[in-house]
Amino acid sequence: YLHRQTPPTEAEEYETYQAIAQIMGSRPLTIRTLDIGGDKTVPYIKLESEPNPFLGWRGIRQSLDTPEIFQTQLRAILRASYGHNIKVMFPMVASVQEVRAAKKILTEVENSLSEVGNIKVGIMVEVPAAVTMANQLAKEVDFFSIGTNDLSQYVMAADRTNSKVANLANGLEPAVLRMIQQTVIAAHEAGISVSVCGQLASNSVAVPILLGLGVDELSVAPPAISIVKRVISQLDMSEVEAIAHSVLELDGAKSVQEYIVAQVGIEI
Predict the structure, then answer these.
(1) DSSP class of residue 76?
(2) What's the DSSP call for residue 215?
(3) pTM across the whole model
(4) What DSSP string describes 242-267?
(5) Which of 44, 57, 103, 178 has a C-alpha 20 to 30 A away from that of 134?
(6) For residues 120 and 87, is the Cβ–Cβ distance under 8 A?
(7) Which residues touch 176 (CB under 8 Å, ≥6 apart)?
(8) Separation of alpha carbons 127 and 233, rounded Å
(9) From CA 217, how far away is CA 228, in angstroms rounded?
(10) Domains of the chain, earliest start first
(11) Model pLDDT for residues 44-59, shown as the tens digit of each residue
């Protein structure tokens, strides 16, 4: 729907979700609600020019301000969830209040439908505020997904679309890795799972670190699945926790990469 001039209808979204859910069978299907803004645009949502769009009107902020589009998508997701293992995930969450507002709308839509599945609710953890408040956010949802592309640029204060500073937005920076550790600890203390998505999840060097930090799932693009599986098969799982905690004490991404290559023998 990225190039359409009009938003998709509920029927169109439902048919798409239903078709994917049928292919997935009993396996979980996680659907992220509309995540427009920053470096992503669609013609049917008129975005005003912003001095810093990555800090602007995007993700769940936008959805809460455009309830008609949000409710349409939620209705399609909920209808498709009947008889399927579907999860819904809210992006760009920065506060507990945003999660509660989104869940309130979700509940209202759910109550208007006769047949829905037992849907689980999660959030993207991709801003430092969400990491800081992870212990409270974990009480509101069923799972976290750490979006490392945005998290890296926000933690490092480096626009990943700006070639002059993009190299700073590196998920292997210990500052970013410590944020991931903090999120995992808060999630597991609350009894919920954590996945990691973004480029870091497909990074061979990062895989042993993420597993050592306790990440439960890695969300990667299809071409990277075989690579990630091969890396995991070569790891000594009894050692990855110590390795992960060691890299948290290093001084930068370059040192982290060199350490993992030397200790684990990962090929870059």
Answers:
(1) H
(2) -
(3) 0.94
(4) HHHHHHTTSSSHHHHHHHHHHHH---
(5) 57
(6) yes
(7) 148, 151, 152, 155, 156, 170, 200
(8) 32
(9) 12
(10) 1-89+105-121 (no CATH), 126-268 (3.20.20.60)
(11) 887 888 888 889 889 9
